[in-house]
Amino acid sequence: MVGLSGYIVLGAIGKTGAVIGTQAFTPIENHLGKRWTFIIAAICGLAGVLVTYLFVPDMTGDDLADEDAKWLCYLAENGWDGEIRDERDGAALTEKIRVGPRGDDSALEME
Fold it and tell me: pTM of whole model > 0.85?
């Protein structure tokens, strides 16, 4: 859930960036030339790397299912009353989190 939402947002940002880049860099190339267009594009790329390094947490080794469970708990604690279904088997994801992926009580509990 959380990961999928992130991909959707990132896809939209990427497409928006492509449109803005096309509209912005064409006049820059016409007025300053290809060399400065490349330099400005490189600066924008480095700025993107810096923003990513500073603001995106390192999720290496983390289980995204646990992040989904935490997100559902957060939603429930803040008054969200809905149900999210797992597309693979149609079961309610909220119920899977209560019971656990293997049917035991190892999952995070929704309070």
Answer: no
